[in-house]
């Protein structure tokens, strides 16, 4: 059997909180138990929100927690050319099309749809308005003209075509902390024509994460349940790009169940705050333990 490879992949757009620590610690534990490797990847493609000082603080907090990652850290912002090449491959398969619409125009379109039909505009699992070339139309000639004029645009996946091409099964393996496995079916169509290359950034989370998990030989992805639906899209991209599909565990997020919206949840307590209050790593590890 090949050696398992786990990774923790934070985005340096803020400080690490207990929820992140829980995820990192679960990765650490599962890697240790299986004799696996543990990688740290900095997902800093969003150059408008990510900052080097957050990255330094993340690395410092993880060291304070005592998590031993392999020394080489991959930083996604240094690899935009690789993601571009992956996008080019999808484009060459006829699976990407340019989208010039602003967020505002998309919201206006949804409002018009709702006014006309009396039904809510379909949304993706993140709550964003679902886009589809079939539903919203796409004027090839106009797109070509705007491309030639150098207008900024995103590249969207033509979901209908992508689904037709990835005729292979979209099954993937989910596992739990006790090592139980089950096969589940990805349903990427619920994302509509997802953005694969963002307007202001030459890639997207989905494309980079799939590219890097394969490049780094990741066999086990352990991350929060908030990313479970995204896995459907990731499995589709893996099939389209001929990449292996890791096994996935989506853990619960740690939150207080006080129900009070404004109450600060336990999961969002920054590690820096605990450190400043005199907690030691042992204490933080105890607080970050995932229930169940
Ligand atoms: N970078 C993502 C985040 O911080 C996590 C990505 C992943 O684990 O796939 O939310």
Description:
The protein has 292 residues and is α/β, with parallel strands linked by helices. It folds into 2 domains: 1-77 and 254-292, Rossmann fold; 79-212, Glutamyl-tRNA Synthetase, domain 3, CATH 3.90.800. Helix content is 40%, strand content 15%. It is built from 11 helices and 10 strands. It has helices at 18-34, 52-65, 80-92, 103-117, 133-136, 140-148, 159-165, 205-215, 228-240, 271-276, 281-287; strands at 5-8, 37-42, 73-75, 96-99, 154-157, 171-175, 181-185, 195-197, 220-224, 247-251. Strands 3-2-1-9-10 form a 5-stranded parallel β-sheet, covered by helices on one side. Strands 4-5-8 form a 3-stranded antiparallel β-sheet. Strands 6-7 form a two-stranded antiparallel ribbon. Strand 9, helix 9 (228-240) and strand 10 (247-251) form a beta-alpha-beta unit. Helix 8 (205-215) packs across helix 9 (228-240). The longest helix has 17 residues, at 18-34. The radius of gyration is 20 Å and the shape is globular. The model is unreliable at 258-263 (pLDDT under 50). It binds glutamic acid. Residues 9-11, 43, 209, 223, 227 line the site of glutamic acid.
Task: Describe this structure in a few short sentences.
Helix content is 40%, strand content 15%.
Quickly list its features.
292 residues, alpha/beta, Rossmann fold, Glutamyl-tRNA Synthetase, domain 3, 2 domains, 5-stranded parallel beta sheet, 3-stranded antiparallel beta sheet, 11 helices, 10 strands, 40% helix, globular, binds glutamic acid
Fold blueprint:
Layout: E1 5-8, H1 18-34, E2 37-42, H2 52-65, E3 73-75, H3 80-92, E4 96-99, H4 103-117, H5 133-136, H6 140-148, E5 154-157, H7 159-165, E6 171-175, E7 181-185, E8 195-197, H8 205-215, E9 220-224, H9 228-240, E10 247-251, H10 271-276, H11 281-287
Parallel strand pairs: 1-2, 1-9, 2-3, 9-10
Antiparallel strand pairs: 4-5, 5-8, 6-7
The structure holds glutamic acid.
């Amino acid at each position: 059997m090949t050696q398992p490879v786990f990774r923790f992949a934070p985005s340096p757009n803020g400080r690490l909180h207990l929820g992140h620590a829980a995820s990192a610690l679960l990765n650490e534990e599962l890697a240790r138990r299986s004799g696996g490797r543990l990688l740290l990847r900095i997902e800093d493609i969003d150059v408008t929100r990510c900052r080097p000082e957050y990255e330094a603080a993340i690395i410092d907090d993880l060291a304070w927690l005592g998590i031993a990652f392999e020394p080489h850290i991959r930083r996604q912002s240094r690899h935009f050319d690789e993601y571009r090449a992956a996008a080019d491959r999808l484009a060459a398969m006829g699976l990407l099309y340019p989208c010039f619409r602003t967020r505002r125009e998309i919201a206006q379109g949804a409002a018009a749809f709702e006014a006309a039909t009396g039904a809510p505009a379909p949304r993706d699992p993140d709550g964003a308005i679902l886009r589809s070339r079939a539903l919203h139309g796409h004027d090839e000639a106009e797109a070509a003209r705007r491309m030639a004029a150098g207008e900024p645009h995103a590249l969207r996946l033509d979901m209908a075509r992508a689904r037709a091409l990835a005729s292979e099964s979209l099954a993937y393996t989910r596992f739990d902390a006790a090592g139980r496995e089950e096969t589940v079916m990805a349903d990427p169509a619920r994302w509509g024509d997802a953005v694969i290359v963002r307007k202001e950034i030459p890639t997207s989370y989905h494309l980079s994460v799939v590219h890097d998990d394969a490049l780094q030989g990741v066999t086990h992805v352990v991350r929060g349940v908030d990313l479970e639906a995204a896995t459907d899209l990731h499995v589709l991209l893996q099939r389209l790009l001929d990449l292996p599909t890791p096994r996935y565990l989506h853990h619960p997020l740690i939150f207080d169940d006080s129900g009070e919206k404004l109450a600060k949840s336990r999961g969002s307590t920054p590690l820096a705050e605990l450190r400043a209050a005199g907690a030691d790593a042992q204490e933080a590890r105890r607080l970050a333990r995932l229930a169940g």
